[in-house]
Every structure is written in structure tokens, then in C-alpha cells.
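Pterin-binding domain-containing protein structure dump, as promised
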Amino acid sequence: MGIINITPDSFYSPSRKQNAEEMLKQAEQMVNDGAKILDIGGASSRPGAEELNATEEIERILPAIEHIKKHYPQIWISIDTYRVVVAKQAVAAGADIVNDISSGLFDDDMISTVAQLNVPYIAMHNRGTAQTMHQNPSYKNVTEEVITELRILVDNCQKTGINDLILDPGFGFAKNVEHNFELLNNMAQLRILGKPILAGISRKSMIYKSLKTDAIHALNGSTALHMVALQQGANILRVHDVKEAVECIELFHRFDSEHTGLHRILTVRDLTLFGMAAIIGAGIFSTIGSACFNGGPAVIWLFVGIAVTCGFSALCYAEMASRIPVAGSAYTYSYTTFGELIAWIIGWDLIMEYAIGNVTVAISWSGNLTTFLHQIGIDLPAFLSKSFLEVKNAHKAFELAIAKKEEISAYTKSMHELWLHAPHIGSLPIILNLPAFLITVIITSLVYIGIKESRTVSNAMVVFKVLVVLIVVIIGAFYVQPSNWVPFAPNGMSGVLKGTSAVFFAYIGFDALATTAEECKNPQRDLPRGMLYSLIIATALYIAAALVLTGMVHYSSLNNEAFLANAFLQRGINWIGGIIAFSALIATASVLLVFQLGQPRIWMSMSRDGLLPKKFAEIHPRFKTPKFSTIMTGLLVGIPALFMDAAFVTDMCSIGTLFAFALVCAGIMILQHRKDLAKPKFKVPYINSRFGIPLLLAVILYLLFHKNAEGVISCLYLLSTLGIVNWIRFIVWLIIGMVIYFAYGKRNSKLAKSQEAANS
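C-alpha cells r here:
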């Protein structure tokens, strides 16, 4: 942002332009040097400057705006004023942004006026009046007080209807030199507010007073502090010297690859299709069969209940996405509302949703591939297409059934035979799920190459699999036998609830869209729509598919990996069975793709905050994707997929996701009712149940009358159904995460370093 002062008394004399010819010449130079925005001011705000009346200010700036718009229509113009009447006429003349040094303090109607004008608003932190703001400013902790006051300002602007808000910490305004340097050193903390940050440091007294010179000779100092501001997260530099600032930005991008930026190409259609890519496939083609086996036809009510739960959570994700349009999903949202510790916990927890969840999808893809190849006469060696733990657990079940003289299923017998006759190294059988590993490598490579390529492939796969699901529902409806729906709930409610993990796993995916915020053209508008659209469409397809599936065949025959294709094979519809088997390959691959997109971007956000090594935030200079994080995600999914049991990782994934959903819903409650957002203490003590049950009842009664509490309550209920074994695994996982946080993350976080610097 280049500064053009149409004043006779600005603190930096070369920026003063008093006629159209001088102004246009400076504008031309700035545009050629690389300025994207020109900030035009008609009244000086330097200490001791005489107050200018509004009429004279308008007479100065209107011709400048009109001339620049005429000659450089592509350039954005910012009007630097704190007066409503000036802002109105400037926008009418062609100004695109209102830059207010007072953030509404000097004119009470400014914020509401900007909302009506529907233009971006640069709001600067300031105190006092134009005449008193420079007189003995006082702070106990300048960074904390600036953040607190800006947070109140953000809430006020959003309530008034300002959608595009840029925050300026206000260097030099109601702050002395020491305050300015302390604030600059801690400016990264302002990222918690979730808004772009503008740094206006150029040639200010904090530079020339420190260097014992003047504004004329403060160029080198300005360039040095501009680099510091960029490292602290500044998104816009407001400068007198555009060429030098542009060069500073280019060198910074070379130096720090995490700021080279991701490609912003995703639209609401792309986001809806990405959501459907994640949701439709993980359920219809992999886990719904086991849920139907346990609950019978009544499993549709579980779909409805979990859809409502996800709907509550989706609404909260949607509001969070519109408030905080940056990558990171629940991690970023938790950082904003709960602080660093809880953000770390949720970031660690999300590994269970995305990375571990993808192990399940990769294993499912392998099962679908085996079925498809078998139908065309190709049989893969069983020891190279089954997971080690799956076969081992079946072998143990076989031996236990023999000891108890119980009936043994054909599947268990086949796994026992595989355990005995697979190639061995010593006493250890060689059993690897090679297809699961290979599909992970292929999808990770695609994700690594770029978001545009991933979008194209994903959209094509979604269109194909939705068409197949519609064909399945329509054709299957003609083979429904109502007698298969009797009894509707053969195993009662307990049987229905046994499918909680499987059905909930089928819905996982819409939240992955939030990780792509920095790749959306308009994240604040499109992310909420994409989440809700994909969830609604998927729910309708799930319920229709479940009804048709349980009506075509008896529910007891659905406990197998390729249950959908087998259901049609049982009814003698061989031709559609092959299509379903192939579609299952496409569907599960698309799920894998979306989750492989999500996990690296969470790690990237955590690395930006210092909680993970900086390498996790590196962006590929050509492909514009998180390069190291993507590779690590591929390894984290691909290697376990060789050995793990799908049932184990499905339950782990579901409990992790519900935990994330509950925190996001709770975060909305905090955002709506707390202004300071201080970090809450996190403590989970043991409480005797005779005291705990009344306390829990009181909490539930409070939540029932609290807006946005529905998501928290429904998530907590579903969490309670997942069983003690899953909770033990989850707690162990969190303990491992806490060890890593206190050993590395806490000591290296940017927030901790900023606080240490402030304290020193």
C-alpha cells in the first residue's frame, strides 16, 4: 500500500503532494514499482498538526481519487480519514477502502456508515482524540491491551455488518517508542483475531528516534522493520517507498517459504463436491454394512440422529469458517477461542480423524479392489491383500472358538488358513495389505502436485459415484422385499447404537473443507455453503441407500467388506455388481484424496504457530502445496495401512472427530459470550458419581437453554456410546500428544516466545 498525502504538513515531506500533476506522477511511480493499493490522505494526523475542516479535506482528496481512477482503474484506492462525510464522498468518487485511524472513536457513525457502504474497513488501534492521543500513552501490557481492544472492535464491526475488516495495530498512535517495539515484537499474537494485519511503520519516529536521525534518512530502518513485520505475520505494508517494500516482500518470500501462499481457486461448487467426495464413499462403500448388520433396518434412525448431530456441528463450523477464514479447521478455531494448549490437543486429536481415518479408507479400497478383480477373473495373493492385524485377530478368534467349541464362520476359517500358509520369516507370517499402501502413495502424489489437479480429479470422481449411487437406489428399489424390514429393529436400540462408530465415520468429511480456507476464492461465503450443501445431499443419499440395502437382502448378510456389490450379486444382478465394485474403488479413492488434503494443512497451521518444526509449514515453490507435511501424511497413512485392522482405526477416528466437533460447538458459545477470550483452565478431575451425576444434570440443564449447545450435547452423547476400550485408546493418544507438546511445542511456540520477550 503506497502512501499519497495531499497535505502541506505530513511528517515526511517528500510524500506531500499539493497539486494533481505531482500526485499523478507519484501515483504512476508507485504503480510501476508494484503497489496494489494507494492510500490517499487529505489531513495530517502527526502530533501538533492543525485540525482541518471536512470541507477542505474533501476538496483535497476528491480530485485525487477521480484522477487516479481515470488513469489506473485496476488500482484499489484507500481513503485515509476518520470523518463519515469524507468517507461517503470518497467512496462515491471511486475509493474502494476506508482507512480510519480512529476505528470510530472520532466519529461515532463511522462503523455503521462503512457497513452501509459495503467496502473493506481498515481499523487502527488508537486511544484518546486526535489532539490528545500522543500525550503520555500508558499501558501495563501493550500487546495484551491492544488485542483486547481490537477484539471488542472486531465484534462491534461484525455485529454492525462489516464483512471485510483489516486490523492496524497503530504504530505511533497513542504509543511511545518502547510501546511500538514491544508491539512489533509480539504482533504475531494478533493472528488470534483471525483478520488480516496491516503494518504502518514506514519512516516513523520509532525508527528515526532510535537511529538518532530524521524521517528523510529512515529508509534503511523502515526496510529492516518491514521484514520484522512480515515475519510477525503482517499481510499488508503501508509504505512511502514502494519499490523497496516490494523487494523486501520478495526476499521474505524467498527466505520463508511458508508465506509464498497457497493457490486460491476453490469455489462453492468445488467445496460442495469436495465434501461429497469425503462423505459419500466412506459410508456407502465401506462401513454402513456393519452398521446395518448390528442394527437392522432401524439403522436409518441412527443416520437421522447422527445427521442432526453433524448438522449442529456443521452450523458451528460454518460460523467459525466465516469468522476465521484461514487454514487449520478445528485446530485454528480452538486456538482462537480456547488458547494454545487446547488447540494443540485438538490438533493432535485431528490426526486421529484425518490420518488414522484414512487408514480405514485405504484398507476399504483394498477390499473393493480385491472384489472387483475377482469378478473379472483375477485373484490377488491373499497374503498381499490383507492386513496383518486383521488376519492375526481372526486367527485368535478361530483358536478361541475351537477351545469353546463354538461355530466358526467361513471368513474366520479362511483367515486362519492364511495365517498358517502365508510365507514366513522364521515364525512370523508375511502378510501385507499392499493395495492399501499403493493407493495411498498414488493419492498422496496427486495431492502433492497441486490443489487444482486434486480438484479436477476429485470432482470427476464425485460425479461418477453419485450417478452410481442413484442407479443403485433406483434399481435396488425394484428388488426390495418388505419382509426384510421385519423386524425393523431386530437387536433393539442397543443393536442400533452399536453402529454409531460406523455411521458417524460415514459422515466424516464436511469438516475437512475448513482446512482449505486459504485456497478458497471467498472462504467466508463459500465454506459455510459448501459444508451444509454436502451434508444435506449426503444424508439424503445415505438414508435412501440404507433403506434399499436392508430391503433387498436380510440384514444379517451385510457384514462383509464389499456388502453393497454382494447384495446385488445375491439377487442375481451380476452386471450392476461389477459397476458397484468399480465405483467403490472410485468413491473410496476420492475420500482418501480429501483427507490427504486436510491433514497437511492442519500441520502447516500448527507449524506456523511454532508448535511443530518449521519444516511442516514449507510450501512447494512450484506446486504451492505443503510439501513436507504432505509427504509425512502419506507415510503416516500408508505404513499403518499395511498392517492395521480396519475396525480398530474406525473407532479411533470416530472418537477423535466427535471430540473435535464438540470443541468447535463450544467455541462458538465462547465467541458469542466472552469478549476477552482469556485462556480457560483445563482440568478433568475424578469426581465421585454421587456428586458427579447432579453436577452433570446441572450442566445439561444449562446447556439446554444455551444457543449452539445442541452440537455439544449431541456430540457428547455419541461419545458416550463408543465404549471404554476406545476411550482408553483415546486417552493414551492424548497423553502421547501432551508429552510432545511440553517437550517441544510449548517451548517453541511463537506465542510463548512473544510472551517471554514481553516479560523480559
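Strands lie at 2-5, 37-41, 76-80, 97-100, 121-124, 165-168, 198-199, 236-237, 424-425, 428-429.
lmk if u need the other ones
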